[in-house]
Amino acid sequence: MISLDACLAASRSTPEFQADIRAYADYRDASRVVILRAAPRIKVLRVITQLIATHPDLVIDRVRIEGVSGCADYRGTVAAEIVHDKPRTFAFVWDCAWRAAQEGWVDRRGNPDQVRAAREFGWQCFSVWQELACELAPTDQSSA
């Protein structure tokens, strides 16, 4: 599994953003990481890792994450502010139970072994990672 540090090293994201990601991981202030709803830090870091791993070419300067965390999942959106470009927003579902089912792993009760999937795949349990189209403000095209 590729680590967060390896993903950051391969990323074109700004040094300030990278410093804030490391600060966030160390439970320090990180103004470039905005979380709109409380969520476990590990789940937030998984989303950020997915973002920089799948889009290392983006010069990301900050992120805003709005998500809802369940027992086995974390779902929502991440908006990335990009230097000299428009923001990019992605819908995500990180779901270790889904990943366990994909692997055919079950626990002693016959349920998907989400603990094993989270441990072995870490951030690589995204059942959904989809860029959302940029919505433009409607224009008034009526005649006077």
Question: Which helices and strands occur, and which strands form pairs?
Answer:
Layout (H helix, E strand, L loop, with lengths): L3 H7 L4 H11 L7 E3 L5 H14 L5 E10 L3 E10 L5 E8 H8 L10 H8 L4 E7 L12
Parallel strand pairs: 1-2
Antiparallel strand pairs: 2-3, 3-4, 4-5
Helix pairs in contact: 1-3, 4-5
In words, what does this structure look like?
The chain is of the alpha+beta class. The protein has a domain at 4-93. The chain contains five helices and five strands. It has a five-stranded mixed β-sheet.
Question: In a nutshell, what does this entry contain?
Answer:
This protein has 144 residues and is of the alpha+beta class.
Spatially, the strands of the biggest sheet line up as 1-2-3-4-5
The Rg value, from CA coordinates, equals 17 Å
Number of helical segments?
A: 5
Name the poorly predicted regions.
none
